[in-house]
Amino acid sequence: MERRTTKPEYGPYIVEALGRLGEASTDDLLAEVYTLMKDKLQPADHTILVNGEPRWRNQAQNMLDGLKDDGYIVEKKGFLRVSES
At the topology level of CATH, where does 7-82 sit? Predict the structure, then answer.
């Protein structure tokens, strides 16, 4: 099996990207995450999944959802930011 970037590996990059942006839509945040990670992603991370998304984006979205569920990132009026609590 080809090496793939695991979901937890996206966490620090998501937080760093949101720190740089301050506040962002999901699409803008994931674009910044890609910019930060593009040299670290594995070839398998670029595989297009059945939902039409590349694997890296799907994994990053899943990690983002977990960070939101855990209260590290909050979404208000369509914009994400790092939680202050």
Answer: Arc Repressor Mutant, subunit A (1.10.10)
